[in-house]
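Render this sequence as a predicted structure.
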Amino acid sequence: MGRTIHKGFLTLIIYKMNNHDFKGTGVAIVTPFLENGELDKDGLKNLVEHLIDGNVNYLVVLGTTGENSTLDKSEKQTVFSLVNEFNNKRLKLVAGIGGNDTRAIIKDFLTFDLSGYSAILSVSPYYNKPTQEGIFQHYKSLSEASPLPIIMYNVPGRTGMNVTADTTLRIAKNCKNIIATKEASGNMEQIMQIIKDKPNGFEVISGDDGITLPLIACGSIGVISVIANAYPAFSSKMVSLCLDGNFAEARIIHEKMLPVIQSIFAEGSPSGVKYYLSKLNTIKESFRLPVVSVSNNHKTHIDELMKTMS
């Protein structure tokens, strides 16, 4: 009986996704820390309120931007639970759960308390450098085991392996519990092929702030953004205008944000965006090694850019 209920729950979630539950601006939220390296619960609450006030559509918790690789399992559960508490059912939530050990990820799927979450974002395996067949079998296993729909995540600049268009489409057609891909390959031809050939019910989400506008023009349903941590209202407005087909107005905001987007990645992420957030008095500029602060010269550059974002 439990299995039947489980499948029915998945069918409900997939149906909702077909109605574009993840359309618009998602935010890959940072994880605030105190100066001593401990989790900053007040900072996390401030960040959630800041993002909700900026009219974003959903929050992605403990993705790469959330420094998830430096948190232990207990801390990850704390962050998942706190965001759910602070959000209080106002926005949809996505849990970042990925890695390079398929069995370990499946165990995490089944042991984390994901109350309040609507989907899981799971990055393609890193370091192992699996073949395309290995990537397909990885996601097939996750799809069969996950209690929630999965957004796959292709970011070859971090993982070392691109998930090709053919593999993504194979996953989309054969793994019904995988309902979207966050595409951060930067390969426009590849992403356009996925958009062109994807089955109904599978969506493409931009994973690169700088190319979100053209990707929506090609058929993407939105973005999972880093820059929206700092400037949620600007990001949300730009994406909303794009989805409404008003690219002329959207382009004005896009061009205004472009130097800021470039600056947040110039000396590593989330170092850049955390400096922005600290200057906005949202969180402290604290990290866990090996992530460190941006240089003083870059801080001066960011200070000047912030004057243009009023």
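Summary. The chain has one domain: 2-244. The beta strands are 24-28, 58-61, 92-96, 119-123, 150-154, 178-183, 203-206, 222-225.
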